């Protein structure tokens, strides 16, 4: 491993990916999915370094960049034969890492028989064109591929990577020690603006020009190259304009009708484009439920979130904590800790007075189990009764516990028979991110040492 990679702290998802790769019982290839520039290649290099440290011979390891010109037109079987002829290995299994696999035509059709017939191989494939990988893996690799989504940096990962001392730390499962809420909020604001991408989080040079890094290196490559090549999109400017509109309205409720009026693009085209943007992990839709937690039969409206608030910085510049639109970015950042963990998330809005709850957690039976209102204000710590939408939703669904975020204060109170806990948004984001990297849903019974709430 080169010194640059060696100096980078591994992402917290290294362990889960490694367990999938090493588990011989699975007999599956690992398909590493994720947005551009979230560290997929670096994670592969850390996997290789760990295997070497565990005593695996270098002759049993092969890393191949599939977009290399010399491999153009070469089959996966041919590449493996070349590896085995050039670097014989006496022992098995052999570990093969194919990066930028989307550049290899029909990769999934070639990979499937290798998984079926070569039990001596452990294979991981990865690539930047996440939309293509996800579609092809789902369609062709049922039972043979295990998808693993590497998300943007969670807040807990971000604090581990930064050189300054974190203002919060985990001292047990769902148990945290908060050193200084003002320091944590400075770190959280920094994360909202710069935190989702490892390079943006760590490099001062990249931070000085986030627009170039995010827009040129990430967004434009997806919008101008990946999606048009995959889906045959002709009007690239139309797609780009729609994404800019969605990014500007992150964490807000929108409808196809509104988007069509504001963009001049037809509703059916907008629906297709949003599906493409979701497949590329740029945005995520959250659907509306009523007061009973049930989906509407005619879904006219939905909320749209960027999967990484740093994309907003790249498009529109960094925001300060007191800017009028910062609350939407806080909501986006909290949501970004959870969209990839498998939770069933919706938002609730109903009635003539537009009662609303920002996020609703549902069970496998689609019954609400908890709810969260995301605020960037301490106002409701002393006025919890003003959270009327949350209160009515909790009463209607007999919820035991609901949450609301604040800017810097903790609170604990009752909304009728329901317990309301209020935590600073940065603390709750840290909890959600810590839970996600442990590979499970966020636990609602977390606590912070020394804080009543």
The total number of structural domains is: 2
Low-pLDDT stretches: none
Using the alpha-carbon principal axes, give the shape.
globular
Tell me the helix content.
40-55%
The helix/strand class is alpha/beta
Strand order of the largest sheet: 8-10-9-11-12-13-14-16-15
Sheet with the most strands, sense and barrel status? 9 strands, mixed
Beta-strand content: 15-25%
Give the end-to-end Cα distance, rounded to a whole number of Å. 45 Å
Total E-strand runs: 17
* Discrete helix count: 19
- Average pLDDT value? 90
Taking all Cα atoms into account, the compactness measure Rg is 23 Å
Provide structural commentary:
The protein is built from 19 helices and 17 strands. Strand 6 and strand 7 form a beta hairpin. Helix 13 packs across helix 14. The longest helix has 22 residues. The protein is globular and about 70 Å long. The model has no long low-confidence stretch (mean pLDDT 90).
Summarize the model shown.
The protein has 453 residues and is of the alpha/beta class.
Blueprint of the fold:
Layout: H1 3-6, H2 14-22, E1 29-33, H3 40-53, E2 61-65, H4 76-86, E3 94-99, H5 107-117, E4 121-126, H6 130-140, E5 145-149, H7 155-161, E6 168-172, E7 175-178, H8 181-194, H9 198-202, H10 204-208, H11 210-231, H12 236-248, E8 252-255, H13 256-263, H14 267-279, E9 283-289, E10 301-306, H15 310-316, H16 326-336, E11 344-350, E12 355-362, E13 368-373, H17 379-382, H18 388-397, E14 401-406, E15 411-415, E16 418-424, H19 425-437, E17 447-448
Parallel strand pairs: 1-4, 1-5, 2-3, 3-4, 7-17, 9-11, 13-14, 14-16
Antiparallel strand pairs: 6-7, 8-10, 9-10, 11-12, 12-13, 15-16
Helix pairs in contact: 6-14, 8-15, 11-15, 13-14, 16-19
